[in-house]
Design a protein that fits this description.
By secondary structure, the chain is mainly alpha-helical. The protein has nine helices and no strands.
Length: 207
Amino acid sequence: MARYRSRTRSAFLPSVPFGTVVKGLIKPLGMAERVCKNRLEGDVMAGRIVLCALVLALVATCPAMAGSSQDGVAALRRHDYAAAIAKFGPLAERGDARAQAYLGFMYANGYGVPQNYIEAANWLRLASEQGVPIAQYWLGLMYDRGLGVPQDFVLAYKWLDLAVARASGREREDWARIRNAIASKLTLVQRTEAQALAVEWQSLRAR
């Protein structure tokens, strides 16, 4: 899936400067992953996802991969999106879930690559299948809005339900509120189906 193509910066950028999102929020390796509050700001305007915050503190899985991830995070912090893509891309191709989540976020917002919701959804799905809660949250939002994927409230509920299950504190409250809003769009049969899909995913993941 080597489809990422680097460029300096997309003309379609969200209204919140990315520097304000990551400044001072990257924690040292070895600490638990922390995910900052994210929300969809108002309606999607001109088909854009506007995310107000991003924190994916990379946890070392092996020294070599950790170093490469750190380089990608450092590139993001200095707004060098082309360098970030160059670092995260190969890691994502090799199956690093956090790099896949970063890449999905960058495609969704047009950082360093042409904005592409289909690519964003593809990378977020890969990260979601590996259990990254923030990726599951974003993927659920994309299904809710029909961005890069067919609009599907059942799948939106499934992924948000999984994200909520692994969230905590204020983040869990916020995500649960969004999940419950999506639930209001479902019939009882559809909600039961969505919950069954979430349980099935968890069962397969536990094997």
